Amino acid sequence: MPSATNSSLQLPNNEDCGIRDVWAHNLEDEFRTIRQIVQKYNYVAMDTEFPGVVARPIGEFRSSADYQYQMLRCNVDLLRIIQLGLTFLDDTGKTPGGTYTTWQFNFKFNLQEDMYAQDSIDLLTNSGIQFKKHEDDGIEPLEFAELLMSSGIVLMDNIKWLSFHSGYDFGYLIKLLTDNNLPQDENEFFELLRLYFPTIYDVKYLMKSCKTLKGGLQEVAEQLELERVGPQHQAGSDSLLTGMAFFKMKEMFFEDTIDDSKFSGHLYGLGTSFALNGSSSYGQDNGENTNSS
């Protein structure tokens, strides 16, 4: 992770950048807006911020891919999500024309009570995340999950999710939606993934077919000559950049057509993925286990 330095630098203001900060007090109002927007803007770019990696599984594992999933599972089970960013785009990559393109959900998190990795908290603090405000005004996960279930963006075949190296991101979302620990078996995890998020494009997985692209989200964006909007290492800005990267890659490397049978449902760094026909396939890649941004 990058070191937490230059904390005195002025960070961009989310609201000035078209990123709507959502706390407990405006959660229901913002979901009302989202239910309208998603009817036209059905590509949902997503990123989370979470408190790092604090545990590693012990024992015997079937494969390195199994180890990667078990590490994801034990950390997601132990930790709490801090932020979720959702950016809405249409099928040409355009964002809504109103004041906001992106919604950044800020969850309840208490540095005195909740587990975390110190380097992750330092990085997020340096990126402008206000942990005292999360403690006082943060969203309760159960309330968020209830609204998400009725929002029209999960359990829907017409919604296409865009992400970057997103095993942990979707792990936290599934934990929220099920109000439960993640399944012990990776295949069961992917069954839940397919249920809630029928179409997913992980930009880091797509990069395997783009020989010139490499690195984390910021590095890829620079290679694609994209300009970030909002503060790096906050979920709203990262979700917007993920959406922009997907559509630029789709145009430059895929002739504007992504083959769902090859790319939908694959999460970079995990060994199992679902295909559109419901069968499982096994990949060879194992990514690093950090919140790549």
Automatic annotation (TrEMBL):
It is an enzyme of class 3 (hydrolase). It comes from Dendroctonus ponderosae. Transmembrane segments: none annotated. Its EC number is 3.1.13.4. It is found in: Cytoplasm; Nucleus. PANTHER family: CCR4-NOT TRANSCRIPTION COMPLEX SUBUNIT. The keyword Transmembrane does not apply. This is poly(A)-specific ribonuclease. Gene3D superfamilies: Ribonuclease H-like superfamily/Ribonuclease H. Coiled coil: none annotated. GO terms for cellular component: CCR4-NOT complex; cytoplasm; nucleus.
